[in-house]
Amino acid sequence: MTPDLSIVVPVYNEAAGLPVFHERLCRNARAEAEARGLRVEVVYVDDGSRDGSANIAAALPPLGLDIQVVALSRNFGKEAALMAGLDHARGDALLFMDGDGQHPPEMIPTFVRLWKDEGYDVAYAVKSNRLDEPLARRSFVRGFYWLLNFGSSSTIPEDAADFRILSPRATAALRRMPERNRFFKGLSSWIGFRQIAVPYQPDARTHGTTSFNFLRLLGLSMEALTSFSPAPLRLAALCGAGLAGLALFYGAWIVLERLIWGIPLPGYPSLVVGIMVMGGAQLLVMGLMGEYVARILSEIKARPVYFVADHVLTAHDAQTAPDAATQAVAPPLKVAGAPS
Predict the structure, then answer these.
(1) Which pLDDT score is estimated for 49?
(2) CA geometry: angle 113, 127, 104, nearest 5 deg
(3) Which residues pair with 198 in a beta bridge?
(4) Residue 75: how many CA atoms within 13 Å on its side-chain side?
(5) Which helix (H) or strand (E) holds 44?
(6) Residue 45 in contact with residue 11, Cβ under 8 Å?
(7) In this predicted structure, what is the pLDDT of residue 286?
(8) Is pLDDT of 89 > 70?
(9) Which residues have C-beta within 8 Å of that of residue 150, sequence separation ≥ 6?
(10) Minimal CA–CA distance to 308: which of 281, 271, 334, 280?
(11) What number is the average pLDDT over the span 35-53?
(12) Is residue 317 part of a domain?
């Protein structure tokens, strides 16, 4: 029987806290499923973990829910893991959350209520504040979202998390997105429909530290900017126009100084400075164009976003799996935009 709701959980090196998180998740999801008569499954996507997270996830008890474990062949990144969950989820509606314990499963009833009772297609969690983060990080995030939404046709909410629920029609729309360079928050905002923000405060990590260091966040930021916003190119063009205007004004000024006041033309220092400024601006623009061209090349090559090494489905009752309670499944390799 097809589930009504699939809860997709990307996992990367979460072996230490996965059993506790699973019990907490299943307890809250099962209570909501029983109260509303829903059939719910959990889809764990192991993104090439090195600590045996995939094996631990495959051995987790169903606890009243169907459990899928999709183990990728290597670490492809969180965006690829989210897409793998989207491809393998059998439910009509989807709920995405992280497996590190920072997205509280206790919010599942809130998301389901907004979808089932109030008719929202996308309900997404938004950090209520960032006071626990350094000022430099908060400033970087604020500047990133300003740049991302500068001149964009659709606004991507600031501080929105991947923790969100999508209705069946929103899920169907998201599955029609064919691109391989993906930014999940942007895609789920771009599809439109009725959306609402849900303030929340992330829980403390139950173990370990985040794998998203500054360089990885910077890479994800460039992915988002090149996927959803022409702002970098527009700002580079404005910067080039401004420099050209200043150069023209400066050239006219030194000519007037020579003709009117007899001041000799400045020598090589001003020439060197001018060349360095213009050369730096040109290299900046070329670098930005290179980022966009690299994304275009990636789309043209059309390589699969991920490969699946193992896939296990554990049904919560014998009726849904007549041959065995646990079945090993070998699905075809998924390509971005391919039908599930």
Answers:
(1) 85
(2) 55
(3) 125
(4) 9
(5) strand 40-46
(6) yes
(7) 74
(8) yes
(9) 229, 231, 234, 235
(10) 334
(11) 87
(12) yes
Under 8 Å between Cβ of 124 and 97? no
Query: What DSSP character marks residue 101?
Result: S
Q: Can you tell me which residue has the tokens 């193992």?
A: 310
Do 182 and 286 reside in the same domain of the chain?
no
Beta carbons within 10 angstroms of residue 305's beta carbon = 24
Cβ atoms < 10 Å from Cβ of 107? 18
Give the pLDDT of residue 340: 37
Task: Quote the domain boundaries for residue 151.
Answer: 5-212+303-329
71 bridge partner residues: 46, 310
Same domain, 197 and 140: yes
- CA-to-CA distance for 45 and 85, rounded, in angstroms? 6
- Rounded average pLDDT over 183-212: 75
**Is the pLDDT reported for residue 300 higher than 70?**
yes
Task: Tell me how many domains the chain contains.
Answer: 2
| pLDDT for residue 328 | 42
Q: With the C-alpha atoms ordered 78, 79, 80, 84, is the resulting torsion angle positive or negative?
A: positive
Q: Tokens 């020598």 appear where?
A: 267
Q: What is the CATH number of the domain that holds 117?
A: 3.90.550.10
Q: Which residue has the tokens 């960032």?
A: 130
How confident is the model over 59-76, as pLDDT tens digits? 888 888 888 888 888 888
pLDDT, position 44:
92
In angstroms, rounded to a whole number, what is the distance separating the alpha carbons of residues 323 and 328? 12
Three-class secondary structure of residue 201 per DSSP:
coil
Residue 338 has pLDDT above 70, yes or no: no
Write down the mean pLDDT value for the chain.
75
Please, what's the b/e burial string for 46-73 (b: 16 or more CB within 10 A of its CB; e: otherwise)?
A: bbbbeeebbebbbebebeebbbbbbbbe
Six-digit token string for 182: 């993906």
